[in-house]
Design a protein that fits this description.
Its cofactor is Mn(2+); Fe(2+); Zn(2+). This is Transcriptional repressor. GO terms for molecular function: DNA-binding transcription factor activity; transcription cis-regulatory region binding; zinc ion binding. Belongs to the Fur family. There is one protein chain. This protein has about 140 residues and is an alpha+beta fold. It contains 6 helices and 5 strands. It folds into 2 domains: about 80 residues, Winged helix-like DNA-binding domain superfamily/Winged helix DNA-binding domain (Arc Repressor Mutant, subunit A, Orthogonal Bundle); about 55 residues, Ferric-uptake regulator, C-terminal dimerisarion domain (Dna Ligase, domain 1, 2-Layer Sandwich), CATH 3.30.1490.190. Strands 4-3-5 form a 3-stranded mixed β-sheet, with no helix packed on it. Helix 3 crosses helix 4. The radius of gyration is 17 Å and the shape is globular. Bound molecules: zinc ion (3 copies). One zinc ion (ZN) binds next to loops.
């Protein structure tokens, strides 16, 4: 783990507080998305008196700053993960085990053509999150 989070936060004009750095380290160690309560439980080993609202607030600030990503989950709860990949890409999330995988496929060109043609608009950005079951989780399913 050699990512310089101090620098990342500074570039985003977010203060590199010990709590923010601890949250980033917790998320960086994971291959799954975590809810605020998961992060909170882990934070408590280091910050004994930390409250859940503080964790909520810090996660939201990091997400708004673009340091971490927020999952749009069908259960409508909040989940976050940290992706270190810089290039434009998307994510596959497993709804069962919460695994997050990078997806490099992007239909950017087709989307732009569709928008330009059908509604004569211009695409500025897009969000794509693919929900599903990973291989391990779909093994037990009927095919
Ligand atoms: Zn899974
Ligand atoms: Zn990613
Ligand atoms: Zn894309």
């Amino acid at each position: 783990m050699h990512v310089n989070y101090h620098l990342t936060l500074k570039n985003l004009k977010l203060k590199a507080t010990p709590k923010r750095l601890a949250i980033l380290e917790i998320l960086a160690d994971e291959f799954v998305y975590l809810g605020p309560d998961d992060v909170w439980r882990r934070m408590k080993t280091k910050f004994k008196r930390i409250g859940l609202p503080t964790v909520y607030r810090n996660l939201e600030e990091l997400s708004e700053g673009g340091v971490i990503s927020k999952v749009v989950h069908p259960d409508r709860k909040l989940y976050y993960f940290l992706c270190k990949k810089q290039e434009h890409h998307h994510h596959f999330i497993c709804l069962s085990c919460r695994r997050v995988e990078d997806i490099s496929f992007c239909a950017e060109k087709e989307i732009e053509e569709e928008v330009a043609g059908r509604i004569q608009g211009k695409v500025l950005s897009h969000i794509l999150q693919i929900n599903g079951l990973c291989r391990d989780c779909s093994d037990g399913e009927e095919r």
